[in-house]
Design goal:
DNA primase, PRIM domain, five-stranded mixed beta sheet, alpha+beta, NHEJ_LigD, DNA ligase D polymerase domain-containing protein, LigD_pol_dom, 6 helices
Length: 313
């Protein structure tokens, strides 16, 4: 039965359905997912602000089929903000999340994962069909992301060493990296930068990946070939392309259990052991926020964010 209830969040009326429906094998329900996103909104919304959101939806829970959704679904409420983006396949109308009601509405659609690009709408050029992704008018990214994808045999302690090595290389260039878990098994670094054409950020990220692979060949690999990644960390630089996106801080991941992409302190990274778990439950993520505040706030772009250096050679 498709049971619906009407509720108000910040003065907006929403119709929510099947709140008791389990979305994870552990029994974590859609109602719990909605509650988490409403509670985490104060910390999460600044990291979603002004960014197009790609959603990963699990209509029958994480044990069933999932799909990536870019276009706003039919029947989206008028109060949900959207952004048109030009793509090779035509105009895509993305959802943007500016408030708690939008997060609750997305969670009610079983949009468990929320992913965003490294650029904001304010730093993009609008063409006749939406934001222009390529050419001289491409978006200006305000974030450099370094995704450290562990290959077979890599432990959390290995990932921690890799993150520290990558952050050290960035620090030598005057860039401060901020770590978070991917919500699964890897670590990601985010660096706030002055608005820079996305293609230039991609080129720099690619050069950093190659630099790390050459300087630390026993830790890193810069190739996507899976058969070359055993015992190594793949530095995924492609997430810096204007058309790509990265899981947003505080997003839940669609795994066998609910786990959150969680900002970490460098002390926590350094303390990771081979048997450490990199997954954080929604309840624990909220508890961390209550105790430590938003550790990811430091990576939000500001007027003082540094310029991106030239690519490494």
């Amino acid at each position: 039965m498709n049971e619906r209830i009407a509720t108000q969040i910040d003065g907006v009326t929403l119709s929510l359905s099947n709140l008791d429906k389990p979305l994870f094998p552990s029994g974590f329900t859609k109602g719990e997912l909605i509650s988490y996103y409403v509670e985490v909104a104060e910390a999460m919304l600044p990291h979603l602000a002004d960014r197009a959101i790609t959603r990963v939806r699990f209509p029958n829970g994480t044990s069933g089929q999932s799909f990536y959704e870019k276009n706003a679904p039919g029947g989206a409420p008028e109060w949900v903000r959207t952004l048109d983006v030009e793509t090779s396949a035509g105009t895509v109308t993305y959802v943007m999340a500016e408030d708690r009601p939008t997060l609750a509405w997305l969670a009610n659609l079983a949009a468990i994962e929320l992913h965003t690009p490294q650029w904001r709408a304010a730093d993009a050029t609008m063409g006749p069909d939406g934001v222009v992704l390529e050419g001289d008018d491409e978006p200006r990214s305000t974030t450099l992301v370094v995704d450290l994808d562990p290959g077979p045999g890599i432990t959390p302690a290995d990932s921690a060493r890799g993150a520290i090595l990558a952050a050290t290389a960035l620090a030598e260039l005057g860039l401060e990296a901020h770590p978070k878990t991917s919500g699964n098994k890897g670590l990601q670094l985010s660096v706030p930068i002055a608005a820079t054409p996305a293609s230039e950020v991609f080129t720099f990220a690619q050069s950093l990946a190659k630099h790390l692979a050459v300087k630390h060949p026993k830790q890193f690999v810069a190739t996507m070939a899976k058969d070359a990644r055993g015992g190594l960390i793949f530095v995924d630089y492609a997430q810096n392309l204007a058309a790509r996106n990265t899981v947003t801080a505080y997003s839940v991941r669609g795994l066998d259990e609910p786990s959150v992409a969680t900002p970490l302190s460098w002390e926590e990274v350094a303390a990771l052991k081979p048997d450490s778990r990199l997954r954080t439950s929604p309840a624990r993520a909220l508890d961390r926020l209550g105790r430590s505040g938003d550790l990811w706030q430091a990576q939000l772009p500001t007027a003082d964010s540094p310029k991106l250096p030239d690519p490494l050679t």
